[in-house]
Amino acid sequence: MYRVTTPTHTFALPMQTSELAEIQIQYKQGSVSILKHYENGTLPSGMTLDGNKVYVRLTQEETKQFAPKPQASVQVRVLTNDNTALASQKFNITIHNVLNEDILE
Q1: Which residues in the chain show pLDDT less than 50?
Q2: How many helices (H) and strands (E) does the chain have?
């Protein structure tokens, strides 16, 4: 992932998103933490649901928070409609620097 860009990440789940009461996508690198949390039918900014897929589009401001090293981690946690809590493995994301960190408008 390149800093100061707007990447879209796709998370394929083993169930339909309609079966889920909550979905959390957590990005973490050191003290930087970005949480996208769907609950009570309310989508956070940048999150889209489609069948068994969750799409997260980060903003330039969000990706600018990450440092080029070390890698960032991302993890998916869900709560099913019957109150079963599940978590994915942690995925490592390599963070690449850009030459100019200005926010493009």
Answers
A1: none
A2: 1, 8
